[in-house]
Amino acid sequence: MKKLSVAVAICAALASSYTSAEVRINGFASIVGGKSLDSDQTLYGYDDDISFKNESVFALQLSADLQEKLSATAQIVARGENDFDADFEWAYLTYEFSDELQLSAGKMRAPFYKYSDFLDVGYTYRWVRPPQSVYNLPFSTYEGLSLLYTSQIGDWDSSLQVIYGSFEDNIAVVSVNGETELNDIAGLNWSLSYDWFSARVAYFVAETTIDIENDTDAGIALNGLEATLRSSGFTDQADSIAVDEDDGAFFALGFSIDYNNILFDAEYTQFEVDNSALAEQTQYYTSLGYRMDEWLVHVTYENNDDKHDNNRYNSLTAVPQLNAGINSALEGSKAKSNVYTIGARYDFHPSAAFKIDFSRLDDDITNIETDVVAVGVDLVF
Known about the structure:
Layout: H1 4-16, E1 22-36, E2 57-65, E3 70-79, E4 86-96, E5 101-109, E6 141-153, E7 156-173, E8 175-194, E9 197-211, H2 217-231, H3 235-239, E10 243-259, E11 262-273, E12 280-292, E13 295-307, H4 320-332, E14 335-349, E15 352-363, E16 368-380
Antiparallel strand pairs: 1-2, 1-16, 2-3, 3-4, 4-5, 5-6, 6-7, 7-8, 8-9, 9-10, 10-11, 11-12, 12-13, 13-14, 14-15, 15-16
Helix pairs in contact: 2-4
């Protein structure tokens, strides 16, 4: 983790080299406070004590024109949830073959969603946070290559991006800190736009390995079940629990409308890791907004449905106790919920916006409702 002092030193070094490269420094920030309205429930990291750390962000972006069609970009982000320690979110080089074709290499944002490039820049969207039922993958960057081709197809603007790379870090999947490796990440993101309408489709695959730690009840249960299956000679069933070099796939489809004062966004995503205890995740959201001068009001509905195919159950009927354990593990990874959000945005300054959102999550598995209210100020500079 790079500390802020290191980040400032790098900024100073880049700025001092202006004789050899034109360096631009931009920044953004979000100061967000929120709390759960339920004394015994948490959502988006909030409990019933107000917090201004969970979703607050400060960042600097440095862009250097190195001449001869070569440029460098770095983004340094400090998140409240990480005690505002600064880290390099992006760091990559770009070479422009032409006005239409460019190749980037380094650490970049993975283009999973419509707002992926602006995921941390709250000023660019209407919510306090993007709909989390969809924007829920526990990582957002990769290291590798990106080839971007922009063109015209008739009257339509087309943007086709192809990526290849890898990801390695500790992320929260089942356990709190699971060492995760995604190798051979490959896929494409294609966007089309015409006047007030735009649409996109994306598809990515990766070889997925997740080391589940014994730091949660679910992690302990899964590891215990896998060990019991292996020691009992049921290797195939144990392999169907472990996440070890399994094929993962992510699909996304969405469209947007910005017509007069009416805004509409919808995105659908599906994520699955074959032959693992992870459930197939299917999510979507729809969001309607209305712009009134400096004000924008919106309402959003989100749906999340994580489950396994029925044919994965009862795979070991000859041993009822172990069969029950497998079924319990598959059931434990299920999730089904809905989120309703109403909110407003007020652009009180050309470079700043105030937002307030009220969200209610209905968990169909536990039949528990959780309400969260959050307010924030988003800045760009």
